[in-house]
Design goal:
Elements (H helix, E strand, L loop, with lengths): L2 H27 L9 H11 L2 H10 L5 H13 L3 H30 L2 E2 L5 E2 L2 H17 L1 H7 L5 H20 L4 H15 L5 H20 L5 H22 L3 H14 L7 H12 L14 H16 L1 H24 L10 H16 L4 H30 L4 H11 L4 E4 L2 H11 L5 E3 L23 H6 L4 E8 L5 E2 L7 E11 L5 E10 L7
Parallel strand pairs: 3-4, 3-5
Antiparallel strand pairs: 1-2, 5-6, 5-8, 7-8
Helix pairs in contact: 1-5, 1-6, 2-4, 2-19, 5-6, 5-7, 5-8, 6-16, 6-17, 8-9, 8-10, 9-11, 10-11, 10-15, 13-14, 14-15, 14-16, 15-16
Length: about 525
């Protein structure tokens, strides 16, 4: 009979976990293709479609390591090059991350062992043993920033999932440093994480710091001296393995870094940017309904959660705290002293651990009523911002902008010459229109210094546009935009073309953007451009 309650609890846990995963999947697939495929997503799509040699050449001109593009290439090869398939890659990474959250928290609870209860006896806390992993999984499933980035064909949710896997394997290494399989799994996951996104390198550094701290702590305790030596020795071997993995990519990394410093100017870091970025990450993931000055609490809250976890959370509180705080401090220090790289989406690798560190601190509260109230407030906070983000997503879907503009052109002039105003807009059209001879890019400047060091374009995308226009086709459609990069880009046609009609297609994705479809006819003579 003793096994019956345990079996019932196991089934309740399985059902609850399935329900949470279903909720997370629904949130991440709702309105999946209704919003504009962004420029960054279009670059991911295009780079993944290129031949292998051209793909690695385009990655070198991009600002990311190669793992995501290689995996995306295989994914689109299996499921087709549609926008839905591309974004489903992020959705799958996001849902897997939700499931891995349960795995990490279950591992922490299992390794933590029994803890003192309120009456002083040694019994497992009800929250820690039964609800803690499920509550943490629910929080990540509802997390607005994680949901938002799960709907993008970008490497963010892949990085979060690999971060969680690395944390799980790191816990196993700390518990059993003698097992070779634990070390191999940890080294492989950390190496893959480092090749996913350059911001993940801060998370990798935090994981290595956890190993260093735990090794030094155990080294000072006679009963754990051997374990401490193994942890420090394994740390040295892990660093050496990462050096070997990165050796073939160092040259490309230095080229990317030099290009970013030379061509991608960023404004200096300000306190307003820090408040805004951390405030967005802790709320809706988008522009919160606050002024930047009202978000002064965000860095204080984030830092306090991480430091308290490190100071009072024990071994695994230190793990969560370091993974929550160290990447933020590293990003801030680099941005203040080298180059500003602070962005909301890049904080997701640490933000998930900040959320879990908060729950870890709450789990340590001895008063049951206070603990339950804190959990309810945390779930309510996340749910309210998730609802706000969901409503905003529905509103964005009502103005698809670029998709509607392309549909209008296809409906009016499927075979006419269409000229796009900038390399960035042209890149965004490719996942929708595909490779069409009638769609061309107009660009004036040195393509090798500008175009081929930014958007993932090929020479055939724009080299014949001038020749086609010089032949004076009887009608030309143009696709222009305003607001994409806080400026305007417009096609300039030869004299003799008269504007017949124009249509505005607003796109409220993150900030006011407008795509303009203009129809010109050749009249001859000298008319307006």
């Amino acid at each position: 009979m003793s096994g019956s309650p345990r079996s019932a609890h196991r089934w309740v846990t399985v059902v609850a976990l399935i329900a949470i995963l279903a909720l997370g999947t629904w949130l991440r697939t709702t309105q999946l293709t209704s919003t504009t495929f962004t420029f960054d997503e279009s670059c991911s799509w295009r780079i993944s479609q290129l031949p292998w040699s051209a793909m690695f050449d385009a990655i070198a001109r991009d600002a990311h390591p190669p793992l995501f593009y290689v995996l995306m290439r295989g994914w689109l090869g299996l499921f087709g090059p549609s926008i839905f398939a591309a974004r489903m890659f992020g959705v799958v990474g996001g849902v897997v991350g939700v499931g891995l959250t349960w795995g990490l928290l279950r591992e922490l609870v299992r390794q933590q062992g029994p803890s003192p209860s309120e009456d002083g006896t040694t019994q497992p806390q009800v929250l820690a043993r039964k609800l803690f992993p499920l509550v943490g999984t629910l929080l990540v499933a509802l997390d607005p920033l994680h949901v938002q980035l799960s709907q993008e064909a970008r490497p963010y949710t892949l990085g979060v999932s690999l971060s969680l896997i690395s944390a799980i394997l790191l816990c196993k290494v700390i518990r059993q440093p003698i097992r070779f399989s634990n070390w191999m799994g940890c080294v492989v996951s950390v190496a893959l994480l480092s090749w996913t996104h350059y911001y993940c390198l801060w998370t990798v550094a935090a994981l290595l710091m956890v190993l260093l701290v735990e090794g030094l702590i155990q080294l000072r305790q006679p009963e754990f001296h051997t374990s401490g030596q193994r942890l420090l020795g394994g740390l040295a071997l892990t660093i050496a393995a990462l050096q070997l993995v990165w050796f073939p990519w160092y040259g490309t990394f230095e080229f990317q870094q030099a290009r970013a410093h030379r061509q991608l100017w960023m404004p200096p870091l300000t306190s307003e940017q820090i408040f805004t970025a951390l405030g967005k990450a802790l709320t809706s993931g988008q522009d919160p309904a606050f002024r930047a000055d009202d978000l002064w609490w965000a860095p204080i809250a984030w830092g306090s959660i991480g430091l308290l976890s490190i100071w009072r959370g024990g071994r695994y509180g230190r793990l969560l705290g370091l993974l929550a705080v160290f990447p933020i401090l590293s990003t801030w220090a680099y941005s203040a002293n080298v180059r500003n790289i602070l962005g909301v989406r890049y904080l997701v690798f640490a933000q998930v651990f900040c959320l879990l560190a908060t729950l870890w601190l709450i789990a340590g509260i001895h008063r049951r009523a206070l603990r339950a109230s804190a959990i309810a407030l945390l779930i309510a906070w996340t749910s309210c911002w998730m609802w706000s983000s969901y409503v905003q997503r529905i509103r964005q879907a009502e103005v698809p902008g670029l998709t509607a503009a392309i549909a209008h052109i296809d409906g009016q002039a499927a075979d006419a010459l269409v000229v796009v105003s900038s390399p960035f807009v042209y890149t965004m059209t490719l996942p929708v229109v595909g490779e069409r001879d009638t769609w061309r890019l107009q660009y004036r400047g040195n393509h090798r210094d500008n175009i081929l060091s930014g958007p993932a374009l090929q020479l055939t995308d724009y080299q014949s546009t001038g020749r086609l226009l010089s032949a004076h086709p009887p009608e030309v459609w143009t696709l222009d935009e305003t607001g994409q990069f806080r400026s305007e880009s417009r096609v300039r046609l030869p004299l003799g073309y008269e504007l017949i009609e124009e249509h505005d297609f607003p796109d409220r994705l993150r900030r006011p953007i407008h795509f303009w479809v203009r129809h010109y006819q050749w009249r001859g003579g000298e008319t307006q451009e």
